[in-house]
Every structure is written in C-alpha cells, then in structure tokens.
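Researcher: I'd like a candidate sequence for this fold, 150 residues long. If you have to choose between options at a position, lean toward the conservative one.
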C-alpha cells in the first residue's frame, strides 16, 4: 500500500509540474478547467473507479476558435476514457457538431483540441468512463461545460 501511495504521489507531482509549465507558457490561456466538486447543496458524486475528471471550453473571438479540453483519470486497476461531444445551441435545443474520444487503455485519458466553428453558442457534453480489466464499463459520469458564444 505504501509503495502504491508513493507512486500516486509522484504521478500527482508530475501532473502538477506539467500543468504549471503549461500555464507559464500560456498553452492553456483562457481555458478554464471545471474539476469535479460538490454542488451548491453540498452533494458531490462518489466514484469507485473514476478518480478525477475535468472539462473546459473557451473561445478566442479574434481567431474564431474554440479551445476544448476534457480529461478522465481512473484509480489503479481500471483504465479510463473520455468522449467529448461539441454541441451548438439551435433554438432551445442542443445539436451535436463533432466529437473526439480518447480511450487508450491507461489510467489517464485526455482530449485537447482546437475547433473553428461558425458563430453561435456552444458547450461540451463530456462522457467520463472507467473500464475494468475485462474492458467492460465500470463507471460513467456525464457532465457539461459552461456555454460560450463565438
């Protein structure tokens, strides 16, 4: 157990260092992460296989570009996956525009993309998943980003 804790600590420190380097270089400028947290009423999801998930959507008006980010991390013994669906608001409905997926068989899955849409209001629908050793879905969590207009 102590060996596993050390490995987890090292991985977390490496992720923190990489995130700080990206922030320092401006690679994630304008991109807001939305980590999983308790809602206003204090209720938060409790996962068995998904360790952490986040998503972010931002617009660069001058370039007409959306920055898309989503990640899923799973506990050891599980692999992770993330499916990101970019949706456009049409009237009072949301319509799928395009999607990306990362399910490469490790404990961390990430989608980081740029997309050049037409004008409109957009959001992300992110499906965060964890898979067991047999490849079966062990856990699924669907969440949405904030809306952005471009």
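Model: Candidate sequence:
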């Amino acid at each position: 157990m102590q060996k596993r804790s050390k490995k987890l600590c090292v991985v977390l420190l490496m992720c923190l260092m990489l995130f700080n380097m990206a922030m320092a270089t401006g690679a994630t400028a304008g991109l807001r992460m939305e980590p999983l947290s308790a809602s206003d009423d204090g209720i938060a999801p409790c996962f068995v296989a998904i360790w952490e998930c986040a998503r972010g959507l931002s617009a660069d008006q001058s370039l007409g570009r959306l920055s898309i980010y989503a990640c899923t991390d799973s506990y050891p013994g599980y692999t992770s996956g993330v499916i990101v669906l970019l949706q456009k608001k049409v009237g009072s409905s949301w319509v799928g525009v395009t999607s990306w997926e990362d399910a490469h068989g490790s404990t961390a899955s990430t989608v980081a993309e740029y997309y050049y849409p037409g004008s409109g209001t957009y959001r992300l629908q992110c499906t965060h998943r964890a898979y067991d050793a047999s490849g079966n879905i062990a856990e699924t969590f669907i969440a949405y980003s904030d809306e952005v207009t471009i």
